[in-house]
Amino acid sequence: MKFHKLLPLLFLLCSFKSNDGSEEIVGMWFTQDKASKIQIFKHDNLYFGKIVWLKSPLVNGKAIVDEKNPEEKLRSRAVLGLSIFNRFVFEGKNSWAKGEIYDVRSGRTVSGKLSLKNKNTLDVRGFLGNPIFGKTVTLIRAE
Q1: Can you say whether the dihedral through the CA atoms of 38, 113, 110, 34 is positive or negative?
Q2: Residues 42-59: pLDDT tens digits?
Q3: Contacts of 6 (CB under 8 A, 6+ apart)
Q4: Please, are residues 121 and 141 in contact by the beta-carbon 8 Å criterion?
């Protein structure tokens, strides 16, 4: 068979998205208390999450800022739009790891792991050192 006859087939095979489950966490997620919404997205084969909605975005008429950040120059930045999940890598079997989680409430950055329990439930585990010494919170997919 001539090569030019194989081109359409090759193009078709290359155009299909990978079905490895790596993008199952992409989308909008509510925090447990539904006080904020996080958008998880993929960029350069890494996964990130940023705050895109706050139930109460203002305090005394002013935007909520990152006041607990250890870097003084960052304490005036708005929480809305802030990246809180950074550089997660898909490890297979509904698991993303080797990333970092920024906790706005404490100003701390910790190691993290994301585990998709089902299509609408995402466990987010933050830890220092060993994952057994951490805390898990659950996000619910925002439909």
Answers
A1: positive
A2: 999 999 999 999 999 999
A3: none
A4: yes
